[in-house]
Amino acid sequence: MDKPAEPYYLIEPLTAKRRILIRVASIVAGLLTVVFFNIVPLHFVGIDISVIVVDWRTTVNADHSVTRENHWVSVQAFMWLAFFIGLGELWIRRCAVRSEAWLLKIGMLPEDERTMLTSEKLGPIYISARTTAPEAMLPTLLRRLIMEFRKSLSVDRVSSVMDSSLDLMLHQLDLRYTMLRYLVWIIPTLGFLGTVIGIADALAFVGSGQAPMDELLTPTTMKLGVAFYTTLLALIQSGVLMLGLNFIQAADEQVLNEAGQYCLDNLVIRLTEPAHLSRHG
């Protein structure tokens, strides 16, 4: 087997420090977005985007002029913060998938059609699996299969361990998306909460007597508009995160399937038991 020079070149997995930095950067980006939207009014094709993205409050004065107020702490602010935290989690998972996928391309196992593997030949492969991204799925799977074969010298036992390991890894992979699924759930919840608060505020304004009955329509509809835009924004944000989650999780599961197929094609079916060698020696 032609092996690449040690150590293997690969896309390095994210360290715990880099994951923390990405999460901090995503929080900062969310806060900066809220600050920007509260400072700079946005308009597009005659549409007031600021009403949609942040909690602009509109007040009708006695002289019928309109005063707009922005609120730094609002439901929309928490929605933007959760959205950018979700983007950071998606980026972390994307980097992990790229690192795992690259391990399938560096030739950790023989890929020709003639090489057979005995227990003695598995030593260098096991060492490589220990030194090359030891926490990744493919090296972990290789170590388990090699240890089982060197212990039992049974291909059937190795196949059973591979099936159990793939099931366990699939469950572990699913757990890595728990935070993302929570963020996809909490953003629409915040949106509906903002809508309820906005409707309650509009009804309170109607009953407060701050404006004559014949002038209630415009300010009330403005307040209701902000309330319903909160849900609209939340659905857009959660839809973006859900799309990214589905694509990246599908890529993650595809890499796991390819790792299992790679081990089956280039390790399991090449293993040769001592009894088989003695009969054909």
Reconstruct the topology from this structure.
Blueprint: H1 16-39, E1 43-44, E2 47-48, H2 49-53, E3 56-60, E4 66-70, H3 75-103, H4 122-131, H5 137-152, H6 155-175, H7 178-208, H8 217-266, H9 274-280
Antiparallel strand pairs: 1-2, 3-4
Specify the structural class.
Answer: mainly alpha
Q: pLDDT below 50 for ≥5 consecutive residues: which ranges? A: 1-9, 277-281
Radius of gyration: 29 Å
* Residues in helices, as a percent range: 55-70%
Total number of strands:
4
Count of discrete alpha- or pi-helical segments spanning 4 or more residues: 9
Described by the principal axes of the CA atoms, the overall outline is elongated
Strand content: under 5%
Number of domains: 1
Report, as a whole number of angstroms, the end-to-end distance: 22 Å
Across the major sheet, the strand order is: 1-2
- What summary fits the major beta sheet? 2 strands, antiparallel
Average residue pLDDT: 82
Account of the protein in words:
It is a single chain. With 281 residues, the protein is mainly alpha-helical. The protein has one domain (16-280). The chain is built from nine helices and four strands. It has a two-stranded antiparallel ribbon.
Describe the structure in brief:
With 281 residues, the chain is mainly α. It has helices at 16-39, 49-53, 75-103, 122-131, 137-152, 155-175, 178-208, 217-266, 274-280; strands at residues 43-44, 47-48, 56-60, 66-70. A two-stranded antiparallel sheet has the order 1-2. A two-stranded antiparallel sheet has the order 3-4.
